[in-house]
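Quick question, first post here. What does this chain look like in 3D?
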Amino acid sequence: MTEQIQPSSSKFSDADVQYMRRALQLAAHARDAEDEVPVGAVLVQNGEIVGLGWNRNITLHDPTAHAEVMAMRAAGEKLANHRLSGATLYVTLEPCSMCAMAMIHARLGRVVYATADPKTGAAGSVFDTLVDVRHNHRIEVAGGLLAKESASLLREFFRARRSEPH
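> Answer (accepted):
Ran it through. Tokens below.
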């Protein structure tokens, strides 16, 4: 099980908090601009943001257009490489299995997520895909950074959806 950590923990740097705040801004953008589930992602390599993403699967009619995948696609294009070796991905919701496997194939070094996903999380909540010893690459995982903010965004989004007339 992935350890849930509060932002004041020494396990997270000031830069970690800054990048997660940017991911939260992207999550709000997904909600406000595209009426998507509010999940945002920021991919950082060598201290530079190389990819940004937010959920776009409804907008693009693409089941793979999760925030994490969008950030990795943007980084791959920017760096002209399908390998994102050692990069850190900041995402507002614990990655699903699809995204986790894409991260392994991209050779990410670290994933930092905000809130856990108790239904489909693949970074320790339901599955432990990112650190499974059966893979040829494992990714360092840290969860819980700004979890309350992310959980609140998601909760409010789904509450509003349930109250909409069908």
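The chain is about 35% helix and 15% strand.
The mean pLDDT is 93.
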